[in-house]
Design brief:
The structure holds 2 protein chains of 2 kinds. Chain A contains no helices and 12 strands. In chain A, the strands form 3 sheets. In chain A, strands 2, 5, 6, 10, 11 and 12 form a 6-stranded mixed beta sheet that branches. In chain A, strands 3-9-8-7 form a 4-stranded antiparallel beta sheet, with no helix packed on it. By secondary structure, chain B is mainly beta. Chain B contains no helices and 10 strands. In chain B, a hairpin with a 5-residue loop joins strand 4 and strand 5. The chains are: A mainly beta, B mainly beta.
Chain lengths: 114, 118
Amino acid sequence: AQSVTQPDIHITVSEGASLELRCNYSYGATPYLFWYVQSPGQGLQLLLKYFSGDTLVQGIKGFEAEFKRSQSSFNLRKPSVHWSDAAEYFCAVGVKSGNTPLVFGKGTRLSVIA
Amino acid sequence: GAGVSQSPSNKVTEKGKDVELRCDPISGHTALYWYRQSLGQGLEFLIYFQGNSAPDKSGLPSDRFSAERTGGSVSTLTIQRTQQEDSAVYLCASSSGGLAGGYQETQYFGPGTRLLVL
């Protein structure tokens, strides 16, 4: 079965600074990988996903993520953080057949300071 | 509707009581998912409905939990004889259901129902 780890529970960055949120997965084959964001009081929204092809994936709101098979990682990045990016971020891993549920990480809470 | 809606937004109940949580998926979406989000935890999969297929109930934590989906649209998650450890946010999501492997589809989430069991 697949699993996912988000090592950072909480990260604080200054507005305008760059951001990297870490995600490590465990799965025997090439996984499907997702990043979702949850703003306070809201449901989750998909930022981006990786299925195959180019390992650098562009998403919404200026986010990107890079799939690194050798490191079993799918880190989320943004070059310049905005105050509105403060939220909870979840990495999820799925299998290619799509017939088993996604496994979500425990999330990383992002705080943005002026 | 424009998005996934859930009701109630908040529910406070006493231990031992039954509760029903409702989910209205996006119109036309045939796949529907329920998750539980406990404090400091990720999302825990509960159940998945896809069209007329038998639901995947593999995530239901006990037989006190059940869910149904009537008419392929609205879904109700029922928790019987609630316990304090059931306190959590219950999230519903839907997806178009067009792919054979439904779990890989983009899921659209509702705002959740926050359940507190006293």
